[in-house]
Amino acid sequence: MKSHRNSLVYKAGRYVTRLLLDELPKHCTFHGVQHTFNVVKGVRVIGKAEGLAKKDIQLLMIAAWFHDTGHIDTYNDHEKFSASIAREFLMERNCPKQKIDIIEACIQATKMPQNPRTLMEKVICDADLYHLSFPTYENYQQLLREEWKVVLGKDYSNEEWNQLNDSFLQNHSYFTHYGKTILEPKKWIGPAEFEAKK
User: Fold this and answer.
1) How far apart are the first and last CA of the chain?
2) Residues 6+ apart with CB under 8 A from 21
3) Distance CA 128, CA 112 (A)
4) Could you tell me what percentage of the chain is helix, strand and coil, using 3-state DSSP and rounding each to the nearest 5?
5) pLDDT higher than threshold 70 for residue 5
6) Which residues of 89-113 are buried (b: 16+ CB within 10 A; e: fewer)?
7) Which of 40, 51, 89, 158 keeps 20 to 30 A from 10, CA to CA?
8) Is 161 exposed, middle or buried (0-12, 13-18, 19+ CB in 10 A)?
């Protein structure tokens, strides 16, 4: 029986964690190891709830590990570079081309605005925004705000930032049944949305 430490998912996790810790620019305060851990956990939870086979969840976990690695080189359109890093890692470990193609497609599906075609792509897209349902949502948004200030030169006032977040949350919808029924009701309620629900 194959040991856990020999699994491709485990190796991907070790590789990506080290890659992000060593090479991710310090200004990537949101798109780092913690966000990646959240997405890996998200694909496991959502994939299981959606009835995906274990082998498909494992492919999703690999895609989740790699989905933001492109940030070590570029910010915009990083998904393409993330997929390339994943492909190189997987080819070196003799992963079948069919599996690599699925993993790459799942990584590319996380590009905003999200437009997933398959259930696996829907699962990773929902997992990528899993944090919207966390009680600590505001903490994650603050990290993103700091990241955008440095990387994109966008220095939002509190009012502008709240409006931007409210608009995003109001226009965002999860794709999976789990996302719609479990995550959506837990989504953080911003100031404007709270006022509207009074």
Assistant:
1) 57
2) 33
3) 11
4) 70, 0, 30
5) no
6) bbeeeebeeeebebbbbbbbbbbee
7) 51
8) middle
Does the pLDDT of residue 36 top 80, yes or no?
A: yes
User: What six digits make up the tokens of 23?
Assistant: 């090479």
pLDDT of residue 149: 95
| Rounded Cα distance, 137 and 165, in Å | 11
Q: What is the DSSP string of 137-173?
A: HHHHHHHHHHHHHHHT-----HHHHHHHHHHHHHH--
Token pair belonging to 148: 């955008």
Instruction: Give the three-class secondary structure for 93.
Output: coil
As a residue count, the chain comes to 198
pLDDT digits (tens, 9 = 90+) for 124-173: 999 999 999 988 888 999 999 999 999 999 999 999 999 998 899 889 99
Residue (of 65, 89, 91, 67) closest to 79 by Cα position = 67
Q: List Cβ<8 Å contacts ≥24 apart for 101-106.
A: 102/59, 102/63, 103/59, 103/62, 103/63, 103/66, 104/63, 106/59, 106/60, 106/63, 106/67
Domain that holds residue 141: 4-197
The maximal CA–CA distance of the chain, rounded, in angstroms, is 57
User: What is the domain-level CATH number for residue 120?
Assistant: 1.10.3210.10
Residue 95 DSSP class:
-
